Amino acid sequence: MFPSRMLLNNLFNDFDSTKNYDKLMKCDIYEENNFNIFEIDLPGFKKDDIKLDLENGYLVVSAEKKNTEENNDENKNYIHRERYYHTKCERSFYIGEISENNIKATFNDGILKIKIPKEDEQQKSKKTISID
Questions:
Q1: Rounded distance, CA 13 to CA 6, Å?
Q2: Suppose 112 and one of 25, 33, 40, 71 were both cysteines; which one would form an S-S bond, judging by CB atoms 3.0 to 4.6 Å apart?
Q3: pTM for the whole structure
Q4: pLDDT of residue 41
Q5: Positive or negative CA dihedral for 44, 49, 52, 58?
């Protein structure tokens, strides 16, 4: 015997995508040789769902998935449904002024890996400006 619909709704509230929005796009950033490597979890997304943009020194990673599969099976009386959804998420990271040609990205097994060259040490060095 199933619990009442109200109890089931409370039981599944933890799975509400609006409450778990912060759990999307988990990211690890580490250094490897002369590169900063970003590994971003995007489970359930395809390569075509993901977009990378450079805007004013920020790398903007966005992913959008629309479920185009319409299931109009009227014989099913759904108690809770999670697999029919529209998901959109976005994160931005300040990386400085880097040419998009120097950034490499791959997507395998739900993990987006972005390889960004570190800034040249000469560019990072302190510079003194003379006062006239």
A1: 11
A2: 40
A3: 0.67
A4: 94
A5: negative
pLDDT at 74: 67
C-alpha distances in angstroms, 44 versus 39, 67, 82, 88? 15, 11, 13, 12
CA distances from 31 to 41, 53, 119 (A): 18, 21, 12
Residue 57 bridge partners (DSSP): none
pLDDT tens figures, 53-102: 998 889 999 998 876 555 556 677 878 877 666 788 899 999 988 888 88
Q: Which pairing describes strands 58-66 and 50-55: parallel, antiparallel, or unpaired? A: antiparallel
- Angular region, 35: left φ>0, alpha ψ -120 to 50, beta rest: beta
Do 27 and 36 form a contact (C-beta atoms < 8 A)?
Answer: no
